[in-house]
Amino acid sequence: MPERSTTLPDNLRADVQTLWDYHDMHHELRPTDVGIGLGSHDLGVATYAAELYQQGYFPRIVFTGANAPTTVERFPRGEAVHYREHALELGIPDDAILVEPEARNTGDNITLSRQLLEARGIEVKSVMLISRPYQQRRAFATCKKLWPDVAVICASRPLPLDKYIVSIGDVDRVINMLVGDTQRIKIYAKRGFAIAQEVPLVVRKSYQNLVQAGFNSRLL
Known about the structure:
Elements: H1 10-23, E1 34-38, H2 44-54, E2 61-64, H3 79-89, E3 97-100, H4 106-119, E4 126-130, H5 136-146, E5 151-155, H6 161-168, H7 171-190, H8 201-212
Parallel strand pairs: 1-2, 1-4, 2-3, 4-5
Helix pairs in contact: 1-7, 1-8, 2-3, 4-5, 5-7, 7-8
Pfam family, one: DUF218
Protein name: YdcF family protein
InterPro entries: Cell_Envelope_Assoc, DUF218, Rossmann-like_a/b/a_fold
């Protein structure tokens, strides 16, 4: 298997950075009732959820996620299960963690986490959604559609683009995911899965440039 590159090509940098900046909601962190770590291939989500818990931003964490084709090899027991194990290794007490192991998309992440919390009798007026950086906007729009009465803050590990690519180990994968999430902002709103979000012209142009450059593996 050829070695995957972690270097962002100069001719793609401006467009990739535009999408990266668009998906960051730039929310100011503040305490919430619960932190919800959205399952994915990125174990950094669990790392950052643990850090935020240790800093006192929320008293409990829900890790949510089953598997997707992109995660089953890395997390064979399920995303949420592996996230929990990682958080325990980082010193998070077991009784501060809830696991929702069935979600297979972002809508499931929100709906099933909400149901789990309600079943435990935990009142929730505010949540912090911890996700991959480029999932923030879609997670926010999905939560506002499916759980409209809760206050939502989005958070991701505060890594610049290049360092994030290195942490994932595959620049093409990151670009494809960015492109796919950008497409989903419009499509999911039309399908009723999320609230509508403005997509500025500069974002649409960068998206089109990257699709034309061949980054289409995550398109619907």
